[in-house]
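From the thread on structure requests for the teaching lab: each student submitted one protein with a one-line request. Submission from student K.M.:

"Model Cholesterol oxidase from Streptomyces caeni, C-alpha cells only."
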Amino acid sequence: AAVEAVPAIVIGSGYGGAVAALRLGQAGIRTLVLEMGRLWNTPGPDGRVFCSTTAPDQRSMWFRTRTEAPLATFLWLDVVNKNISPYPGVLDRVHFDAMSVYVGRGVGGGSLVNGGMAVTPVRSYFGEQFPTVDANEMYGTYFPRARAMLGVNTVDPDWFESTEWYRFARTSRKAAANAGLKTTFVPNVYDFGYMQREAAGTATKSALAGEVIYGNNHGKRSLDKTYLASAIGTGNITINTLERVRDIRRQADGTYLLTTDRIDAGGAVVGTGQYSCTYLFLGAGSLGTTELLVRARETGALPALDASVGTGWGTNGNVMLGRANHLWDTVGADESTIPVLGIDDWANADNPVFAEIAPLPMGLEHWISLYLAITKNPERASFSYDPATDSAKPGWTAAQSAVSVSMAKKLFDRINAANATIYRYDLFGSASKAFADDFTYHPLGGCVLGRATDDYGRVKGYPRLYVTDGSLVPGSIGVNPFLTITALAERTMARVLAEDTAP
Ligand code: FDA
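Reply posted by the TA:
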C-alpha cells in the first residue's frame, strides 16, 4: 500500500492527544489523529449514542461477550454483569497478571467514560513528582488553561445540601466528620446547570439516570465537545477511527513511519495503513504509548530509546471499597453518577490518602457508601515485552497492591471505628473481599517526564517524537489525573510549537 505522508501525526484522542491536535491545528500544521476506537456521535436503535449501566449492550465494552463492571456483585449475586456481543464498545478493561486497567476507547479516550473529576494536585506533591517542572508556571498558566478549556465547574453548594441526588455524599461526609476527617468539594466537567435541570425534570436525565462508565448521553463535556471540536474547527485536523497503530520506526530521512491495523465493528483486521510524518505525538495513554515504545525498542525499530522507557508505572494507589451504613443513615435510592466530594487526608504524613466519595446508583436504598481511595503507594512496576504475543505488560504484583490496601484500610478503619460501622464484603466478586485491589482507573507512567523524555516530553534519542499523555506522570499524582495530564500537554505543546516547528 502507498505510504500517506502528513506533516504531523497524533496517536490516540484522549487528553494528551486532544491537546496536541488542537494546538497543532491552530499552528496551521496539518495533522492526522489515529484512534483505535470509534466516533461516538450516532444514536443506536434506541435513539441513544451510549447505553446505560443498568441495561448494557454491545456499546458498553471493547470486544467482550460479557460486561466487566468494577462492582462485580451485590449480596454476592452476579446481578451486575450482562452478556453482550463483541463490538468496539467504549470501555475496555485490560488484564495483566495481578492488575487490570480500565481505559476509554473512542474519539475522546478516557473522557468518554470517566467520572469527570477535574482535580488540581496538591502543589507540594506535584513538586515532589515533577521536581524539574516550574510549579509557578504550572499553577499560574497551565492548570488554569486546562480548567478553562475543559469547561470545569463546581456543584452549587446550596443545591448540593438540599438535593436527594447527593444524599449519599452527605451521608459519607457525616461519617468522615465523625472520625475528624475533612471533606472537600471536587470540581467536574459535567455541567451542573444541566444536572439541576435533570433534577427539575426539564432536561433528559444522564448523570441522574445512571450513565457514566459506558458513556454519558448528556451533560458531560467530554473531549469530543471541547478540545477535539475546536481542533476539527481549525480545518487542519483529520481523525481516523478504528485504526490502531502497531508499529513505529524512523526512516533514513528522519521522518517516522507508522503501520496500522484497520479494524471493523466485529474486530477483524480489514486492512493496514502506512503513514509517514515529520512530527509524531504519542497520546495513546499510559498503556498504549508505553507498549508502542517498549515494542519499538525491543524489536529494534527504535533501538536508541532510553532504558527508562517502560519503567515508573503505577496505579495512582487506587483501591475501591464499600462501607455498610446504619439503617438510619440512608444514602437514598436516587444517586447522581457524578462524584462531587472527596475525603482529603493527604496532609496526614503517616498515611496520605485522598478518597473520592463514589456513587452506587441502583435505584433502591442499599445503605452502601462507596469510595475510590487514591493512596500514596510508592510501588512502581516496569513493562516487559513478550515477542510471542508482540505485547508489553507491566509487572505489577499483588504484593504491590497490598500496599495501597493497607493505606486505604488505615483510613477507613478510623471511619468505621468512629461510626461503629463495617465494610461491605459482597461487592467485588469473591466472598469476603472488602477491597477491590485488582483494578485501577488511573494508569500512570511508563515514559516518565525527565527520564524517558526531556523536561518537555521530547523522547530521548529521537528528534520530533513526543509523549503528551498519562505515561509522563511517574505512577502517582495524589488526585484524579486528567487535569494534570491536560496541563502538562499544554505546557509541552507551548514549548514544542515555539522551539521545534518554526520553519
Ligand atoms: P486516554 O486513555 O484518555 O486516551 C488514549 C487514547 O488512545 C484512547 O482513546 C485509546 O483508544 C487510544 N489508543 C491507545 N492505543 C492506541 C493505538 N495503538 N493506536 C490508536 N489509538 C490508540 N480521571 C480524572 O481525572 N477524573 C475522573 O473522574 C476519572 N474517572 C475515571 C473513571 C473511569 C471509569 C476511568 C476508566 C478513568 C477515569 N479517570 C479519571 C482517568 C482518566 O480518564 C485518564 O487518566 C485519562 O483518560 C488518561 O488520559 P490520556 O491522554 O493519558 O489517555
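TA comment: Residues 4-499 form a domain with the FAD/NAD(P)-binding domain fold (CATH 3.50.50.60). DSSP finds ten helices and 21 strands in the chain.
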